[in-house]
Task: inverse folding
């Protein structure tokens, strides 16, 4: 029976072993259920802002997550634990982009209101720091062994995405200074276009206007919400197989040990 069970575990994707909550599954499930129910009550009855209810829910489910990651570090090592944290954060980041996309396209909210679940975090500085943090963690993980085609592709996509957010931060600062010169100090130029999408660099640059790049679907016409939704889709598309390859190496090293 033990041999059959071990064989079944070996056949399932290694990533599932890595992200398994193990002893924290039940506490996490209970706290997640309570946090969602509490958030719904807080938003609908108490009129708590959605971002505050979301932040509170995340704090509620944090303790079992921290215990799971501590166990990961002991079982698999710090790089594997770091990968688990990255997957959790990027997973929530994906939910945030889906929420923004739903608000804009399904609920038909204007773009300035389509801020997802954590509207307070939807600022240029947060995007800038988030993407640089994601890139640096990817560099660390590749250095720690998350190599192979998927790992290198993920690193390339993360680098280019971070480059776009660096360009966005530059545009943000330039526009902020221009507004300051006009005496406007209470307006934050959030939501400026980057390389891609409507009014982005591809659409407005003399180098790229009227080229095939601008004729590609959405490259020069998509709203910013769509552009960064698809950036996140591409990153997750590469992150999951890269993480699975890394988890396979971790599992193989444990078997050898």
Result:
């Amino acid at each position: 029976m033990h041999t059959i069970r071990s064989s079944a575990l070996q056949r399932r994707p290694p990533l599932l072993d890595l992200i398994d909550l193990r002893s924290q599954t039940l506490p996490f499930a209970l706290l997640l259920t309570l946090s969602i129910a509490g958030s719904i009550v807080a938003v609908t009855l108490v009129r708590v802002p959605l971002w505050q209810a979301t932040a509170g829910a995340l704090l509620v489910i944090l303790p079992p997550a921290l215990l799971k990651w501590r166990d990961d570090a002991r079982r698999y090592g710090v790089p594997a634990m770091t990968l688990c944290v990255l997957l959790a954060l990027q997973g929530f980041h994906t939910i945030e982009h889906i929420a923004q996309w739903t608000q804009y396209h399904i609920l038909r909210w204007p773009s300035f209101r389509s801020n997802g679940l954590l509207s307070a975090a939807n600022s240029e500085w947060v995007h800038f720091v988030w993407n640089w943090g994601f890139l640096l963690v990817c560099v660390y993980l590749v250095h720690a062994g998350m190599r192979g085609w998927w790992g290198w592709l993920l690193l390339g996509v993360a680098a280019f995405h971070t480059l776009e957010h660096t360009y966005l931060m530059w545009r943000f600062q330039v526009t902020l200074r221009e507004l300051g010169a006009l005496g406007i100090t209470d307006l934050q130029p959030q939501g400026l276009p980057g390389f891609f999408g409507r009014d982005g660099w591809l659409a407005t640059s003399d180098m790229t206007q009227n080229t095939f790049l601008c004729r590609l679907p959405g490259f020069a016409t998509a709203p910013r919400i769509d552009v960064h939704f698809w950036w996140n889709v591409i990153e997750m598309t590469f992150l999951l197989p890269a993480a699975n390859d890394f988890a396979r190496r971790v599992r193989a090293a444990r078997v050898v040990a």
User: Anything to note?
Assistant: The mean pLDDT is 92. Residues 149-181 form the longest helix (33 residues). The chain has one domain: 2-256. The radius of gyration is 21 Å.
